[in-house]
Amino acid sequence: SGLVYYELRNDGKTVYTLLLDQSAIHPKVNSTFRVDLTTTPAALAVIDGDVQVRGISNDSQTEAHQGQMIQFHPSATAQYTVLDGIIPNGFDQWNDQRDEEAAKQIANQT
Hints:
Number of helices: 1
Order of helices and strands: EEEEEEEEEH
Strand order of the largest sheet: 1-4-5-8-9
Strand content: 35-45%
Number of strands: 9
Mean pLDDT: 85
């Protein structure tokens, strides 16, 4: 269980795949998303970009865009539920602050 933020780039040459239980997650463009395994069902929130989720052992798939969430239901007939809106998490602001601080440090390097 846990909460993980991903910032994955899609440059056309490098393919990133995140495996989560019975699903493969691919950013379609440069994407930032959060995977929350502390909730039931597990959820993926797309903060920026677009992601595609495919079932590993079947043909089920869906997409989520910026501002949407996917809930995972691996044992159900409909494996994914796409929701409009992101449920805020206390770590969202912390993650944003870390990104801003990293950008400042890069800008201040000589």
